[in-house]
Design brief:
This protein has 434 residues and is α/β, with parallel strands linked by helices. It is built from 17 helices and 15 strands. The N terminus is likely disordered.
Length: 434
């Protein structure tokens, strides 16, 4: 199946979406709940993350406004309030995003901001949200630093951070009894890549204590050309090559590594790689270990909610949903849960940022990818299950994932009173793994 969304059609699609959700007049202002949605609509992260995420968000909002979602999400909109999205492109870097955030809050008068794929954008926007006292949901970015280095009242992240990706990946290698005497890493040179590699290396130190590192590579974000790095990985001859590359960088690495035999020489493991499956299709190599930053796509649990979500997404866009739309969906469903909880407590009025923050703190809700629990970061940071698989071709030559294993949230996420890296280095105290 092919993705129907394209960069060329983004502007027209956004205009159509705005028109579809637009309401006018003073009465409409009371009947709507305005969400600022920020995700990549241009640049290297658009095809793999931003556009699919908004595709999922747009479809879900339409279903919620129509009251067509399954229970417990079958009430229309948010407690009867029609959801009105204002969509912003995340491209441009942290400085641009800080200004766009201020515009959403101060000019567009949104009730909530939901957004951000880039870890640098999350780190930049979170203090501004606190300054403006604006309830904000970070739906995707992975760096653990957001809540490990700061305390926030108005900022929440409805998806687990990258510690679970890399602890889960090390556990997955062990569960498949993969021999690892040496391992290497290629990760982007900013918070996300550095934190991912740090967590993976530490987890391997616990699970494969005798394994040694042969190469640690940190190309710039958006580098696009990896000939030098691939040569270093081939020369290192590591048993396992770890990478948290994403978006266009990940696709470029895969396509450039294929003819040079990296996937034959080493067990390549992508901690967050499932979003590369739809755009690469049959060009995805067999045998690669693939994570999804949660139990998404091929790794999602069987449930009525996941079946409904997956079937609607596939019928609308002719492609399987992967991590970005799943994460957008769990953010919106969490927001719906928090809004309706706050409205139940305030007599049915549209909740303020303070009321939303109180409702979201420590909240849990079911998502298509399993149970989301806001238990870390003083009730502001989610934990969730995670899955991994290995790529293979089915009888039709299509790439699927096999050898799928899911890990419980408390097997791969640190406890509430510990930072991720500290927890790993201490030997995963309190971890419960089935």
């Amino acid at each position: 199946m092919k993705q129907k969304s394209s960069h060329a059609g983004i502007a027209a699609a956004l205009m159509a979406t705005t028109a579809a959700f637009a309401l006018t007049g003073a009465a409409a202002a009371q009947e709507t709940f305005k969400i600022g949605v920020v995700t990549f609509l241009s640049g290297q992260a658009a095809q793999s993350f931003g556009v699919p995420a908004w595709d999922g968000g747009k479809m879900l909002i339409e279903k919620l406004n129509a009251g067509e979602a399954p229970a417990p999400y079958d009430t229309k909109g948010f407690g009867g309030l029609t959801i009105e999205p204002v969509v912003i492109d995340e491209a441009g870097g942290a400085t641009v995003q800080v200004q766009e955030y201020r515009n959403l809050v101060q000019r567009e008068n949104v009730d909530v901001v939901v957004g951000y794929v880039g870890s640098g954008d999350c780190l930049a926007v979170a203090p501004v949200a606190e300054e403006l006292k604006q309830f904000t949901i970070l739906y995707d970015c992975g760096t653990p630093r957001v809540f490990e280095e700061n305390d926030y009242e108005y900022v929440f992240r409805t998806a687990a951070h990258a510690t679970q990706d890399n602890v889960g990946l090390a556990r997955y290698l062990k569960a498949l009894d993969i021999k690892v005497e040496t391992f290497s890493g290629i990760n982007q040179d900013y918070a996300w890549g550095q934190d991912s590699w740090g967590d993976f290396k530490a987890a391997m130190g616990q699970i494969y204590p005798d394994a040694t590192v042969t190469a640690e590579l940190f190309p710039a974000f958006g580098a696009g050309q990896y000939g030098t790095e691939i040569s270093a990985l081939l020369q290192g001859k590591a048993d396992v090559v770890h990478s948290s590359l994403w978006g266009g960088d990940l696709q470029a690495l895969i396509l450039q590594s294929l003819p040079r035999g990296l996937f034959q020489r080493s067990q390549v493991a992508f901690s967050a790689g499932d979003h590369s499956l739809p755009p690469l299709g049959k060009n995805m190599p067999e045998g690669a270990i693939v994570g999804a930053r949660g139990a998404y796509g091929f790794m999602a649990p069987e449930s009525e909610l996941n079946t409904w979500w997956k079937d609607n997404y596939e019928s609308t866009y002719d492609v399987m949903p992967v991590q970005a739309p799943y994460r957008m969906a769990q953010a919106i469903l969490g927001l719906k849960t928090a809004v309706e909880k706050a409205m139940a407590e305030n007599g049915g009025k549209k909740p303020s940022s303070e009321e939303l923050a109180a409702a979201m703190k420590g909240l849990s809700w079911e998502s298509p990818g399993g149970l989301i629990e806001m238990v870390n970061g003083n009730g502001h940071q989610a934990i969730q299950p995670i899955g991994f698989g290995r790529s293979k071709k089915d009888e039709n030559g299509e790439i699927i994932l096999d050898d799928i294993i899911r890990f419980d949230a408390r097997c791969v996420n640190p406890p509430a009173d510990m930072k991720g890296l500290e927890w790993i280095n201490a030997g995963f105290p309190g971890a419960t793994c089935k």
